[in-house]
Amino acid sequence: MALLDLIKHRKSVRDFLDRPVEREKIMMCLEAARLAPSESNSQPWRFVVVDDKQLKDKLCDAAFSNIYWINSFCKTAPVIVVVISEKSKFLARIGGIFRGIKYYLIDIGIAGEHFVLEAEDLGLGTCWIGWFNERAVKSILNIPQHKKIDNLIALGYYNREKLGPEHSREPIEKIASFNSY
Ligand SMILES: Cc1cc2nc3c(=O)[nH]c(=O)nc-3n(C[C@H](O)[C@H](O)[C@H](O)COP(=O)(O)O)c2cc1C
Asked: How far does residue 125's CA lie from ligand 1's centre (Å)?
């Protein structure tokens, strides 16, 4: 699919089919993420893929209970990807301090979206998840306490017909201009 068509095609999926995702496809998504650009080529990311059903169920129960219940739909996803930021290169951190920008978060976002778009190209659905019990996820997956889990990505097959209408987005005139603000 042409890239713009693929981007138009992608939507957040919140209802997954009960069908496992092939490891080869997950590896292709990880490869797409691995090749993402990053400040000073820092590559400040780590992905923990949870595709073992028992572990994934346990993870979802813990991650999406109580105040996080709104994301309980993730329980239907056969795969949860945990995206963790690792330490950036010295140069990127210094540059970030001077510029007042957390470059590593930009890097994480690009890598995550590479993952998501590759998944879409493979016929898989995804949903970025920012609201979850981080402490519980760390504990279940042996992620050191001092690490930061930036987001999760729910991944799996889905029924496209069940997805909602077109994207709701601001018009181009409102978000972009040529040659002046
Ligand atoms: C960083 C980030 C965090 C998000 N967190 C959640 C979340 O916790 N739960 C959820 O259902 N959707 C979450 N989303 C999905 C957005 O709600 C969704 O992308 C947006 O509404 C646009 O819809 P679309 O992805 O279908 O185009 C998140 C998206 C991003 C980029």
From this structure: 13
